Amino acid sequence: MRARRTTGNRRKGGTSRQHLLEVNVRTASVNRQRRGKAMGFLWKVSAVLLVIALAAIGIRFLAFRFFFHNPEYELTHVVTHLNGVMTDEEFVTLTGLKPGKNILQLDLGEASRRLSALPEIRSVSIERRMPDTVEVGVERRHPIFLLSSEIIPPESRTGPDEAPVENSGETFESGKSLLCDGEGMVMRPEHPAEEFQKLPVLMGIDTSSLKPGQHLESESFRNAVAVNEALSDLPEETFQVRTVDVSKPYAVVVTDSSNARFTFGTKDLPGQIDRLRKLITHCQESGRRIATANLIIQRNTPVTFVLTPEDRSAKITPVTTSKKPAKHP
Fold it and tell me: Is residue 81 part of a domain?
């Protein structure tokens, strides 16, 4: 009985070792399959990357040969719409967009940024037109005021019904005069334009520290813009703004082309413009000319008229009296 038991144990031990051997064989086979698949995947990825690299090199070679080094893609025409902001030579110096360069290697973004940095320019558009043309367009800002370089001292500022402050007669000078548009953008144009000579002079704002590119944001400036816009609705042949004085915080004083002086308040502009229209109609019908008018007053608007030569002579003609001969006793 003991011998049989011993034989049975030996058989069980052999079966166990055989099972372990089979497991090891299967594990090694699985590992080999996994390593084979991993290597196959790596080879495929490497092949794909190699193909992509070769394709990129080929595309780059073809691009340089057929585009970047192709004389047909050299910049030949620069079509500009500069609207008087600068000359073509100044444009090329600023942007570097000059004929002879490859059109695909031009940095149009940098050129646009340089143009947009100029205060006189509101917006820029630059387009490539294959194979050899670049078209540039700029939208110029339209100034509404010539900023006076003179500062009116407080002691010389007048009241609404007093004599006006003398106007300096300031005119536009290229590269020196400061202009501003309705948004308050300050600019100093280098090139003259006919419209600059007709701009009204804005007085009463300190320009000593102003530089091109800054913005005017004061309440007095906004009042000046509002009055100027309201007056722009009047026919040009009947009213032309010459100066706008905002040295007083409670009023805007406007001088027209005939040197008449009109005082506007900062409120109820439509009502004041309506009173001005009536005054202009009255002058057209009567032939009279306004010297001063305080349009802030709603009723019985204070108005003075320019005296005609007849009025002056009638006013200064002395009254004559007849002298009786003296009686002698």
Answer: yes
**Number of structural domains found in the chain:** 2
Residues 308 and 178 in one domain: yes
Burial label for 52, CB within 10 Å (0-12, 13-18, 19+), is exposed
Unique residue bearing structure tokens 């010297």: 291
Q: Provide the Cα torsion 15, 20, 25, 30; round to 10°.
A: 130
Query: Which CATH number belongs to the domain containing residue 97 in this structure?
Result: 3.10.20.310
- Could you list the residue range(s) of the whole structural domain that residue 214 is in? 143-159+168-313
Residues 135 and 179 in one domain: no
Please, what is the angle between helix 219-231 and helix 269-286, to 10°?
40
Task: Give the number of C-alpha atoms closer than 13 A to the C-alpha of residue 24, restricted to the C-beta side.
Answer: 6
Show pLDDT as tens, one digit a residue, over the chain (329 residues): 455 555 555 555 566 666 666 666 677 777 777 777 788 788 888 888 888 887 776 666 555 555 556 778 899 999 999 999 999 999 999 999 999 888 988 999 999 999 999 999 999 999 999 999 999 999 999 999 999 977 555 444 444 444 444 445 788 999 999 999 999 999 999 999 999 999 999 999 999 999 999 999 999 999 999 999 999 999 989 999 999 999 998 999 999 999 999 999 999 999 999 999 999 999 999 999 999 999 999 989 999 999 876 555 544 444 343 444 445 44
